[in-house]
Amino acid sequence: MEKEFVGKIEKLSSDGRGITHLDGAVVFVDKTCPGDICKIKIIKENKSYYIGELTEIIEKSPHRVKPFCPMQNVCGACQLQYIDYNYQLELKKEIVEDAMRGIDIKIDDVTASPQIKEYRHKIQYPIRQTNVSKRILAGYFKQKSHDIINIKYCPIQPAICDEIIEYIREQAPLYKIEGYDEGKHKGLLRHVVMRVSAANGDILVVLVLNSEKVPERIKDFAQKLYDRFEKVVGITANLNNKKTNLILSDNTVLLYGQDYIEEITSGVKFKIGSNTFFQVNPKSAENIFNYVKTYISSHHNSPDILDAYAGISTFGLIMADISQAVTSVEENKYSVELAREVKRLNNIKNINLYCQDSEKFFIEEIEKNKKYDITILDPPRKGCSEKSLEYALKLTKSQIIYISCNPATLSRDLKYLISKGCKIESIKPFDMFCHTSHIENVAIINVSK
Ligand SMILES: C[S@@+](CC[C@H](N)C(=O)[O-])C[C@H]1O[C@@H](n2cnc3c(N)ncnc32)[C@H](O)[C@@H]1O
């Protein structure tokens, strides 16, 4: 039996769905805003919750706005664009508060992103083609599907990216470059990835190819693309002929120009390559780096810092001039190689860079009786293992600064640290991913010995 009811949306879930209740059970409803009164059809029943579908808005939340992107309703990228930005920030604070339930801490207000349009500086477009006319399609996948939306205009990324993608759409067929067919694992061009510098607007274009080597026609095509756009400072080919959802393989070949862009963040000049982890919203990331740096310099005098899950050692390199020494550990060898170059480029002497699994590195440091004043942890979404936390704790004299893009795993890890005697001093959210439900947090943790 189909159930339909009228409900008022109360809040947002951590994945950006509206929440209301029916007979005491939670109902998740996509594309709704807290304050909406709406008709909702139950489309799925689980043991403890329902999934509902919005069928009619009876009374709109006062926080609803017209999305600035015409594709918002179909594209999976900016789920919350129909909610005014300041209210998005309030909702994200609530998401963090919900995740931290059980931890005695007041969550700070969310620091807004300095840009809410054109903020995204890493673009990854899957490339397909139409069956009959063989037109090239480039865009994002529809929500929860692999159907592509051919995006001609995306206001959350620098406008020049639209021009480059349009040029690729037009020119690729002239060079007999086919879009990728995922089902048949055929067709040459799988993805176009772009890295754009927020500092100078330079662009690195990566052509991801379903091929073992770079065909001549790709070289000719890349030459034309390189000559056409002054801001494109490099084009690389990434050879990825595996049946995989991973966008980039380890095999990248430079075609024209340079294989990196330069980014300047918190006074340090970075090099970012096709495979380098660097925050997609550099201006918001800079707010985080500056916050952490200001905190450390006002609470510590030239501390010894361990920077783990370091990527290209952004934190370590930025903190070097207020530290006695920095030790940085990251498992991705390309990131560590780039960090070494950045160290040279900026003439930073007091940082040691290690390419290793963090947990193994921590064990070796404990065996050497090493101690750090501060440990910075910035793990991937899955957070840290208990062992890593236990070892990090053993290595840290004063504070752990934990940067996290996933409130759920941050909460789990904080609870573990609290159970080992730590005190949470603060949690400060930063909006890096405007119009999505994602939120970055910086937790300052006092280690009691
Ligand atoms: C969220 S990123 C943070 C990067 C960096 N701190 C930054 O702000 O750009 C997480 C990093 O952890 C690295 N990583 C993941 N698991 C790791 C492990 N077990 N040991 C060392 N590094 C790891 C990833 O390669 C990635 O660079």
Shape: globular
How would you name the CATH homologous superfamily of the largest domain?
A: Vaccinia Virus protein VP39
Largest sheet: 7 strands, mixed
CATH topology of the largest domain: Rossmann fold
Distance between the ends: 60 Å
**Class by alpha and beta content:** alpha/beta
Give the bound compounds: S-adenosylmethionine
Q: Unreliable runs, pLDDT <50, ≥5 residues? A: none
Query: Could you say how many structural domains there are in total?
Result: 3
| Name given to the CATH architecture of the largest domain | 3-Layer(aba) Sandwich
Instruction: Give the neighbour order of strands across the main sheet.
Output: 9-8-7-10-11-12-13
User: How many beta-strand runs?
Assistant: 22
Question: Can you tell me about this structure?
Answer:
- The protein has 3 domains: 64 residues, Nucleic acid-binding proteins (OB fold (Dihydrolipoamide Acetyltransferase, E2P), Beta Barrel), CATH 2.40.50.140; 186 residues, 3-Layer(aba) Sandwich (Rossmann fold); 144 residues, OB fold (Dihydrolipoamide Acetyltransferase, E2P), CATH 2.40.50.
- It contains 9 helices and 22 strands.
- The protein is of the alpha/beta class.
- The mean pLDDT is 96.
- The longest helix has 18 residues.
- The chain is globular.
- The site of S-adenosylmethionine has 18 residues, from α5 and β17.
